[in-house]
Amino acid sequence: MMSSRRTLSTRFAWTDESQAFELLDWETRPDHFDQLCEHTLQLLLLRCRITRERVFETLPEAQFRQEVRAAAEMFEERFFSLPMFVYMRLKFVVLPERERLIRQSQP
After folding, report:
1. Contact between 87 and 47 (Cβ < 8 Å)
2. Distance (Å, rounded) from C-alpha 82 to C-alpha 40?
3. By the 8 A CB rule, do 40 and 32 touch?
4. Among 26, 44, 45, 72, which residue has the fewest nearby CB atoms (within 10 Å)?
5. Does residue 22 lie in a domain region?
6. What is the pTM of this model?
7. Helix, coil or strand: residue 49
């Protein structure tokens, strides 16, 4: 389940679950990318208190997956947590921008 290319910072006490998500080999394993997408979606649902339907109304699932990949590709080790970086990018940049575009396109 884990990628051997990444070394986690010792500055945090990683749980087994968080360590598993941090070390996903999402770049080469489609099943790991699916797990990263689902984990990111779950973070949005729990922390933003929105529904899956609302996320996909704002950002269709295919585009959601593209944005997860784009954010993951931007990740650098100095950010410490890949899933949190992806989640925060979607929450604070991608979804608000998409919502703004939707509002502007409505008559």
Report:
1. yes
2. 10
3. no
4. 45
5. yes
6. 0.87
7. coil
Q: How far is CA 3 from CA 19, 30, 35, 60, 67, in A?
A: 11, 13, 13, 28, 21
State how many domains the chain has: 1
Within-domain flag for 66 = yes
CB 68 within 8 A of CB 86: yes
Single-letter amino acid code for the residue at 78: R
pLDDT in tens, 4-57: 467 777 787 888 888 888 888 889 999 999 999 999 999 999 999 999 999 999
CB 40 within 8 A of CB 80: no
| pLDDT-based confidence at residue 66 (cuts at 50, 70, 90) | very high
Q: Is residue 64 part of a domain?
A: yes
Specify if 10 maps to a domain: no
Check residue 26 and report its DSSP letter: T
